[in-house]
Amino acid sequence: MTFDLEFEAPLRILDADLTKLRRSGGEEDQADALEQEINAKTADLYSHLSAWQTVQVARHKSRPYTLDYVKWLLTDFVELHGDRRFGDDRAILGGPALLDGSPVMLVGHQKGRDTKSNLDHNFGMPNPEGYRKAVRLFRQAEKFGMPIITLVDTPGANPSLPAEERGQAQAIAECIAVMLSVRTPTVSVITGEGGSGGALAIAVPDRLLMLEYSVFTVASPEAAASILWRDSGQAAEAAAAMKITAHDLIQLGIVDRIISEPAGGAHRDHHKAATLLRSAIQAELAELGAVPIDELIQNRHEKYRRIGAVG
After folding, report:
1. How far apart are CA 78 and CA 238, in angstroms?
2. pLDDT on residue 311
3. Whether 152 contacts 191, CB under 8 Å
4. For residue 305, with 0-12 CB atoms within 10 Å meaning exposed, 13-18 middle and 19 or more buried, which class applies?
5. Residue 16: band (very low, low, confident or very high) from pLDDT cuts 50, 70, 90
6. Which DSSP string corresponds to 28-74?
7. Which of 51, 75, 256, 306 is most buried by its number of CB atoms within 10 A?
């Protein structure tokens, strides 16, 4: 995989040199040394990313999405469709599955990788029926005693007029309310973009986790810059000011755990990213499973009441 982000230009040059060296049949020792240098510089670069650079990584087109994680994390996944009111929204996918032999309910955003699949999944921006499908699956998980896992990666809910006419705001509010009250353990992971209410709808769990290079924000940096300075070109400044990275949010007490990513981001090694994700989810579910359900609900409510408290 190439280094295709703007800030990766120094790595791109070194990677091109490595490719030329290997194609020319150069010394294997030289190639190995150059590869080690690339790996070291990648690790160093990614340990000092700015908020805006983190946004670029979170949006990378090759970053693993929900169906990619299903492949590596779960077995016996059965996708369920429809909200039983209007239709099926492909921007949110979900269904029961086994995580290391134990039943869970998975709900997650899904983006596409090309024009056709992006249109099919509405660029990861759910309609009201997507959130109503999530509510239906949350209720099923509660009925059958299955922990809920949500994977969050959306630029935001669909803001179109038809979506608003079908009750977008109400659907998001209902989804939040149900997730806060559902009587089963819940774990959410921000895997890429956690954008606005579209992300929050399925991200109010007992434990909120973030991948190392994901973001969680009330509005995109471009939108915030347009609102604050009337200039979307100041998105980098807005990203820094908004405190949207995993490291910012764990310091603010909003996130419970940061999950490390492979060197250079999850998009460079889906299998390793999923392995790290699985270990974190397993640890959280083991802890939550030992807590009586009434105490779990009380702790969940107190968790969100504390956020934003001053004094």
Report:
1. 40
2. 53
3. yes
4. exposed
5. confident
6. HHHHHHHHHHHHHHHHHHHTT--HHHHHHHHT-TTS--HHHHHHHH-
7. 51
Q: Rounded to two decimals, what is the model's pTM?
A: 0.91
Reported as a pLDDT band with limits 50, 70 and 90, residue 51 is: very high
Question: CB–CB of 275/262 below 8 Å?
Answer: no
Tell me the average pLDDT across 216-223.
Answer: 92
Structure confidence at residue 310 (pLDDT)? 58
Q: What is the chain's mean pLDDT, rounded?
A: 92
- Beta strands 257-259 and 186-195, pairing class: unpaired
Alpha carbon of residue 2 to chain centroid: 22
For residue 21, the model assigns a pLDDT of 72
DSSP-based three-state secondary structure for 92: strand
Describe the crossing of helices 221-229 and 51-58 by its angle, rounded to 10 degrees.
140
Answer for the pair 147, 206: CB distance below 8 angstroms, yes or no. Answer: no
Confidence grade of residue 25 (pLDDT, cut at 50, 70, 90): low
Q: How many CB atoms within 10 Å of residue 297?
A: 17
Q: How many residues does the chain have?
A: 311
pLDDT (tens digit per residue) in 123-135? 999 999 999 999 9
Mean pLDDT across 187-195: 96
The residues near 55 (Cβ < 8 Å, ≥ 6 apart) are 193, 215, 221, 235, 239, 244
Helix 235-242 to helix 51-58 angle (10° resolution) is 100
Task: Please count the other Cβ atoms lying within 10 Å of the Cβ belonging to residue 110.
Answer: 25
54-306 maps to CATH 3.40.50.300: no
Alpha-helical regions (H) of the chain: 9-23, 28-46, 51-58, 66-73, 115-120, 128-144, 161-165, 168-181, 196-200, 221-229, 235-242, 246-251, 270-289, 293-306
Separation CA 249–CA 270 (nearest Å): 24
